[in-house]
Amino acid sequence: MAQMGRPRTFDRDAAITQAMHLFWEQGYDSTSLSQLKANIGSGISAPSFYAAFGSKEALFKEVMERYLNSHGKATESLFDTRLPPRQAIELTLRGSAKMQCEPGHPRGCLVTLGLMSASSAQTLAICAPLVEARVRSRAAFIACVERGIAAGELSAQTDPTTLAAVFECFLLGLTPLARDGVPHAVLDAAVTQVMSAWDAART
Prior knowledge:
The protein is an all-alpha fold. Helix content is 65%, strand content 0%. It has eleven helices and no strands. The chain has helices spanning 12-26, 33-39, 46-53, 56-68, 85-101, 110-116, 121-126, 128-150, 160-179, 184-194, 196-200. Helix 5 runs antiparallel to helix 8, helix 5 packs antiparallel against helix 10 (184-194) and helix 8 crosses helix 9 (160-179). It starts with 11 loop residues before the first helix and ends with a helix.
């Protein structure tokens, strides 16, 4: 009779969260296999790591899925066409600012940090879901502005791509500020200021 393998001595679900925090803090390239093994549970062996996750790349794919379906949902209102477009943008910016400053996980946004820290074409290919998330957000910002124009909330002369870029730049800029320890109250107040760009484009 074949011997059964030794049972895992760690919680796989918790291990993905631990790995997510490490990738979030350091980026994909700067996170070594040794660091992952040391930070999962109380430390696991290489055979246990490969048996559980297959590879560093495969683990990162699970991490990206976990992030996009949890913390990444801070921007979900941007895609809700039931919301007035100005409100959809404002809720997204406030929700992201709040998430990026929350305790219990690294500050900033893993999507932005993951792409900023990618040091090679190979890493960018691995980070494809993060690229897709950013492209999707950009399209949603543009769609919100277009809805504002169609509803008569914004001037017909408003350029959707340009105004959307104002809000996307602000969203991306939250990450380095959050990482530098800028308080949430300051970032939230800044959202109020940046929304004046929408108001200035009103009809």
